[in-house]
Every structure is written in structure tokens, then in C-alpha cells.
Specification:
- By secondary structure, this protein is mainly alpha-helical.
- It has three helices and no strands.
- It has a domain of about 30 residues.
- This is Cobalt transporter.
């Protein structure tokens, strides 16, 4: 019934965590960066003369996000 006063040095229930290398993170970082640039384009510039998609559909979908991020649109 006696318990040891010394704390356990390792917990067998928790697995050891290996560090993630930069080589493993780089493709995901590039993908995320490109995705963010595309999103920034659609929120900030997809209207009028620079429009890639005709019509007002994209403008209406991102209208509130545009104002939230401080982009003027009208």
C-alpha cells in the first residue's frame, strides 16, 4: 500500500514523439502558402477588370469577408 514519493520519469501510456523534419513540412508549407494566396486573390481582387470568373457570384460569396479584412468593394 505504500506509494513511492519519487515521480515517474516516463509514462508508458504516452508514446515518444519524434521531431518533424523540415523536408516533411516544406511541401505542406508551400501548398498552404499557395492556397492562402489564391484565397487572398478571391477575397481581395476578384471583381471588375481583374475578374477571372464572370458575373457577381464570387463577389457575393466573399463580400462580408472582404469588408472584414478591410478591402473596399463599393
Amino acid at each position: 500500500m505504500a506509494q513511492s514519493a519519487a515521480p515517474a520519469t516516463s509514462n508508458p501510456a504516452l508514446p515518444e514523439v519524434a521531431p518533424i523534419s523540415l523536408k516533411a513540412i516544406a511541401p505542406w508549407a508551400v501548398f498552404t502558402g499557395i492556397l492562402m494566396l489564391v484565397l487572398l486573390y478571391f477575397v481581395g481582387a476578384e471583381q471588375g477588370a481583374t475578374s477571372l470568373i464572370s458575373g457577381e457570384a464570387v463577389h457575393e460569396w466573399v463580400h462580408d469577408g472582404r469588408h472584414l479584412l478591410g478591402f473596399p468593394c463599393h
